[in-house]
């Protein structure tokens, strides 16, 4: 180390001149490599400072000129939780586009917005949570079961799809190669074997998984992102794997990730995962916070999202870990920060020149619309019901999701400057006269309407003003202030803060707004919370509860008179890290399915925008409704209330178009009888309403394909907590699904010829023809099967290509299919490899056998 120091100091003698009062250390010389700078800076840190460097919110260390750094930022489908952004469709929806080229352009736009926001924040002198340069996305876990509420974060149920789409995300976020500084850091998560249930993830142990399922299904996408896409971070998961918490697993983090895959980047913990090591009722594999911190670092977790790593000095004192072991992680973290330009002036870092004007710019909104269109999947179109004619006099819009803007945001979202609801999109398309009735809520037949829009803050602007304090007494300067124009909905599931700069626990908030009644009526004040909350109307306290337990739901009726104003104040106190709070003003009228049909008496066509909601399927959602549990689903059936209305409309002779909004597969078997057309719209982002209207009325020909299997009903699903792939997804399912993986209709028709395989060049060629009367895009899919492997997948995706053809046009399509595309599990050697033998190659328009053309080829042993 002494010789290295001398060399580095010698280099500094020729450095650019500085003021006589400034002292330059090697780590401050931008001409040195990031690794050299990291080694020098690490040597200057105290043990206490090293422990702070390893926290996700790393504080400033003034004596060495080290700025604060935030490792946790979100960019799931747009810059999340950090003010305005361009909000793109949910990831599962974007997977339905089968368009990784567009996906890379989208994440390039997201990284532009992220860099611009960070540069602006640095100029303000503070970079807090969600404002940094490290983005914890993409999620490449296998969406093995549609009941998993977070499956919408992934790119579907297929390993190849997750790898290919995840790689596009990494390229877009981290920027092109050949630059001195990284644009951002991306993170592959959650490593590994993670896809619910949410309710048990803090103590659940996956201890009987076959080696085939591990290596052939759960690990391939991570391996591709590490070895080919060059992802800079990997996040370890909450649950245990083979007895060890994933963030403390030597097998996952050392043997596989470091040794076998040669990963040299960072491992970050999921939020609170290290605390799960020792907390009662969780994994309980460590006896204390210090022991948990030591176990995490020794196993290979470099950054903790949480606070247990503050105990590392105590762990060293107790002999549970050495300072040299801590240094390994500290050097990795510092090297990453040097690669991102965190210590260097903006004039040296080219990415800091990206202007704030890129945020939510027209070009990015156009990308959001392009993807929202491409991800629409037409599931049914009986008698060519679609596209509809633009005749407002015969169309009515209904459904709980039709006028809901926040539904389109999905989960882990930022704030769009404007969201086009489906109702707005349809009215823009064919005229404002299109009638609308909500008809029902997601799970119940209620004619409800939110009156939150009638609230005004103290300045007379729409919404409720809010102030947050990082203490339980509402003392001092607020940590955050804002005005909320949509119904309040806060939840700290997944360690999500209520607002930027607000802690997870021991905080307070106050919300104020004035409601002015527009008529004499009885309204309902709906609020829910699980911590302290005082609810005041015109000075009268309606509720005052200080307990910290489960979520309580309140529905208070209030008689109001037209023109009179009602001052509403909510004082909220959060004691622990499991907060939940919501508030809305509701107008409610009892109704029935027959009442709903009566409202549509003048309509020939009803566009029913239904499905489910990201308020119900997401991370650790605290909901108490039929079919949902802690963010997961207990049933994949369409809620009965919606089924009853769809059936009643059908029996009344209406043509029914169902627009299904969801982040997962919904069992729609009865709806194939009661609905004339079914469009799967996912959670389509800020431009979702325009995209739905474009498809419904024929201005865009749908081309999306399902990235997950749509099962017929609940009975086709194995046990949710069984991680075996037997019977799951199109790759192992023996039954016939309702709609197969890769399925999606168009307003035109396509045929494919017999494929040909060129082994010498690793290419598949096939002729595709548009045999219909409209221009359109088909997605050609290539599947593979080892004919001798009876225990293996019935087929598995190995390639795809989007092909746009004019009516009557034919084209020969070429898809890469190299030798490694035949790789699979070899039970004889217990490895993933290309086993010589006969293979079926299947090419077509979905994973269904009837949609595929098959050839059989022989793969020989390499000599």
From TrEMBL:
One of its GO terms (molecular function) is hydrolase activity. This is Glycoside hydrolase family 3 protein. It comes from Xylanibacter caecicola. Pfam families: Fn3-like (PF14310), Glyco_hydro_3 (PF00933), Glyco_hydro_3_C (PF01915), PA14 (PF07691). It comes from the Bacteria. Residues 1-22 form the signal peptide. The keyword Manganese does not apply. Belongs to the glycosyl hydrolase 3 family. Keywords: Hydrolase, Signal. The keyword Signal applies. InterPro entries: BXL, Fn3-like, GH, Glyco_hydro_3_C, Glyco_hydro_3_C_sf, Glyco_hydro_3_N, Glyco_hydro_3_N_sf, Ig-like_fold. Residues 459-601 form the PA14 domain.
């Amino acid at each position: 180390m002494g010789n290295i120091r001398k060399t580095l100091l010698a280099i500094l003698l020729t450095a650019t001149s500085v003021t006589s009062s400034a002292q330059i250390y090697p780590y401050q010389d931008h001409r040195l490599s990031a690794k050299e700078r990291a080694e020098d800076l690490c040597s200057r840190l105290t043990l206490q400072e090293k422990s702070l460097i390893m926290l996700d919110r790393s504080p400033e260390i003034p004596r060495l000129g080290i700025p604060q750094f935030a490792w946790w930022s979100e960019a799931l489908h747009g810059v999340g939780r950090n003010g305005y952004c361009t909000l793109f469709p949910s990831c599962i929806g974007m997977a339905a586009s089968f368009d990784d080229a567009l996906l890379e352009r989208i994440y390039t736009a997201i990284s532009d917005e992220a860099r611009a926001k960070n540069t602006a924040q640095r100029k303000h002198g503070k970079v807090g949570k969600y404002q940094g340069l490290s983005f914890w996305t993409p999620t490449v876990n296998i969406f093995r079961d549609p009941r998993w509420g977070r499956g919408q974060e992934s790119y579907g149920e297929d390993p190849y799809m997750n790898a290919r789409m995840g790689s596009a995300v990494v390229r877009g976020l981290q920027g092109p190669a050949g630059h001195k500084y990284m644009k951002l850091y991306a993170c592959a998560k959650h490593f590994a074997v993670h896809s619910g249930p949410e309710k048990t993830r803090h103590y659940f142990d996956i201890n009987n998984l076959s080696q085939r399922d591990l290596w052939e299904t759960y690990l391939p996408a991570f391996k591709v992102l590490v070895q080919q896409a060059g992802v800079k971070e990997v996040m370890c998961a909450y649950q245990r794997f083979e007895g060890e918490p994933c963030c403390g697993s030597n097998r996952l983090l050392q043997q596989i990730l470091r040794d076998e895959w040669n990963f040299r980047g960072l491992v970050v913990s999921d939020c609170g995962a290290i605390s799960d090591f020792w907390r009662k009722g969780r994994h309980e594999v460590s006896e204390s916070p210090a022991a948990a911190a030591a176990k995490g670092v020794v196993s290979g977790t470099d950054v903790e999202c949480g606070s247990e790593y503050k105990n590392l000095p105590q762990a060293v004192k107790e002999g549970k870990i050495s300072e040299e072991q801590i240094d390994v992680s500290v050097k990795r973290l510092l090297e990453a920060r040097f690669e991102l330009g965190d210590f260097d002036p903006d004039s040296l870092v080219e990415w800091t020149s990206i202007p704030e004007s890129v945020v939510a710019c027209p070009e990015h909104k156009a990308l959001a619309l392009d993807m929202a269109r491409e991800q629409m999947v037409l599931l049914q179109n009986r008698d060519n019901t679609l596209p509809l004619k633009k005749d407002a006099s015969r169309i009515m819009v209904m459904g709980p999701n039709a006028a809901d803007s926040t539904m389109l945001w999905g989960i882990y979202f930022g704030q769009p400057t404007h969201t086009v609801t489906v109702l707005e999109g349809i009215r823009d398309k064919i005229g404002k006269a299109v009638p609308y009735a909500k008809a029902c809520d997601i799970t119940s037949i209620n004619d409800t309407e939110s009156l939150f829009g009638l609230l005004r803050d103290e300045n007379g602007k729409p919404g409720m003003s809010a102030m947050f304090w990082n203490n339980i007494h509402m003392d001092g300067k607020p940590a955050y202030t804002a005005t909320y124009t949509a119904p309040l909905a806060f939840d700290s599931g997944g360690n999500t803060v209520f607002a930027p700069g607000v802690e997870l626990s021991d905080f307070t908030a106050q919300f104020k707004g004035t409601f002015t009644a527009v008529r004499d009526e009885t309204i309902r004040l709906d609020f829910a919370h699980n911590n302290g909350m005082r609810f005041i109307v015109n000075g009268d306290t309606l509720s005052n509860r200080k307990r910290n337990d489960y979520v309580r739901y309140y529905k208070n009726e209030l008689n109001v008179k037209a023109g009179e104003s009602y001052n509403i104040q909510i004082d909220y106190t959060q004691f622990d890290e499991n907060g939940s709070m919501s508030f809305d003003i509701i107008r409610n009228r009892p109704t029935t399915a027959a009442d709903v049909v009566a409202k549509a008496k003048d309509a020939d066509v009803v566009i029913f925008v239904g499905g489910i909601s990201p308020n119900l399927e997401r991370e650790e959602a605290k909901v108490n409704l039929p079919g949902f549990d802690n963010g997961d689903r207990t049933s994949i059936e369409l809620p009965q209330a919606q089924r009853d209305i769809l059936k009643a409309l059908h029996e009344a002779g209406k043509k029914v178009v169902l627009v299904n909004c969801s982040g997962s597969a919904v069992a729609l078997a009865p709806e194939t009888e009661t609905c004339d057309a079914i469009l799967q719209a996912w959670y389509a982002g800020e431009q979702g309403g325009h995209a739905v209207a474009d498809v419904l009325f024929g201005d865009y020909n749908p081309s999306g394909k399902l990235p997950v299997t749509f099962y017929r009903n609940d009975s086709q699903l194995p046990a949710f907590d069984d991680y075996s792939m037997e019977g799951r997804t199109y790759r192992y399912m023996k039954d016939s699904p309702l709609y197969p993986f890769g399925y999606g209709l168009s307003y035109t028709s396509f045929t494919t010829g017999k494929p040909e395989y060129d082994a010498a060049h690793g290419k598949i060629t096939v002729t595709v023809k548009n045999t219909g009367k409209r221009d359109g895009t088909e997605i050609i899919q290539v599947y593979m099967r080892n004919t001798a492997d009876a225990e293996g997948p019935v087929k598995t995706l190995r390639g795809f290509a989007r092909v746009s053809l004019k009516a009557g046009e034919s084209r020969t399509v070429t898809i890469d299919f190299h030798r490694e595309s035949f790789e699979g599990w070899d039970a004889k050697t217990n490895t993933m490899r290309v086993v010589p033998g006969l293979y079926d190659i299947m090419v077509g328009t979905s994973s269904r056998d009837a949609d595929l053309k098959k050839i059989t080829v022989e793969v020989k042993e390499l000599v």
